[in-house]
Amino acid sequence: MYQFPTVAPLPMQQHAVKSHQDAKEMQLGLKVEGHGPAVVLLHSSMGSKSQWRMLMESMRGTHRLIAIDLYGYGDSAMPALGERHSLDDEVRLVQSKLDQLLAPGERFHLVGHSFGGGVALRLAHANPARLHSLALFEPTAFHLLDRKDKVLDDIRAVAHLTRVAADEDQRLAATEIFIDYWSGKGAFAALPPARQALFTSLLPKVPLDFQALIDDPLRPSDYSRMAVPSCLITGRDSPRCTHAIVNVLVARMAKAERHEIGAGHMAPVSHPALVNPIIEGFIRRIDGQASRAQ
Questions:
Q1: 80: left (phi > 0), else alpha (psi -120 to 50), else beta?
Q2: Confidence band, pLDDT 50/70/90 cuts, at residue 292
Q3: What pTM was computed for the model?
């Protein structure tokens, strides 16, 4: 099980120097706003910490919002290309940020979307006692589906095309395939050229995301004993595989509730007014239950 290690304090003079260095490092790939119970936010592939800007604005009066850039996105560096990349690697990145921000043993709410939802699931499984709650919008935890399930055929095809195109520097076409799969046909063509270029520049990380999500060793039974209050949200217009994954989790997780909205997979970005109230309401309800219990 992963732990959130504590570090012995340094002598005063050394500690001042190290604190200055850590403060500079913490600004990379991290955005923190507000005060109160901690809420950790993990974004989708080709996204960044800024994805959660509106949710942070809504909740910062009562909560401490911590949005983190996953590897290869926002201000976080790419992992070493050519090496195996796993959800564990992303979990360690998230934990390294939380070790700097949270007190030893401090609990937090965890929110994730798509690839960030897959990372959040892995972190929740490793440290369920650290979580107040878990809120996920369509976690793309493909490893939870039967490997023979036909809903995975499209995912394998998209994953293959992004990997081959990235290797052959045919990134624009591969990026269009990836964006259109998750957001609907024509979505990429409708973007302004600057946005197309931005997404295309992020493509090299996408095959590593697919690798981590498909190859993770955990199976549905691994989540059967996880009793973290969980909120799972789907979009009515999303690809079939996302609904299949949420179906598996709802059936296995002891304290899971499900919501569906009239939008697609990228709803946390395209329709935050539909998604954010569900997440915020769920977190506030869990906080209220904890207060009454105390």
A1: beta
A2: confident
A3: 0.89
Sign of CA dihedral 24, 29, 35, 37: negative
Residue type, 146: D
Domains of the chain, start order? 30-81+100-148+217-293 (3.40.50.1820)
Specify the residue for token string 């959040």: 120
Tokens standing for residue 250 = 């709802």
Which tokens is 8 given? 């012995």
**With 90 as the cut, is the pLDDT of residue 167 above it?**
no
Count other C-beta atoms under 10 Å from residue 109's C-beta: 26
147-174 burial: b if 16+ Cβ within 10 Å, else e: eeeebbeebeebbebbbebbeeeebeeb
CA distance linking residue 69 with residue 139, whole number of Å: 17
Cβ pair 143, 219 in contact under 8 A: yes
Cα 212-283-96 angle, rounded to 5 deg:
40
Q: CA 56, CA 34: separation in Å to the nearest integer?
A: 8
Vertex 60: Cα angle to 3 and 294 (nearest 5): 60
Convert 83-106 to b/e letters by CB count within 10 Å (16 or more is b): eebbbbbbbebbbebbeebbeeee
Return the percentage of the chain with pLDDT > 70, whole number: 88
Element (H, E) at 256: strand 256-261
Burial 208-234, CB ≥16 within 10 A → b, else e:
bbbbbbbebeeebeebeebebbbbbbb
DSSP string for 110-153: EEEETHHHHHHHHHHHH-GGGEEEEEEES---GGGS-TT-TTHH
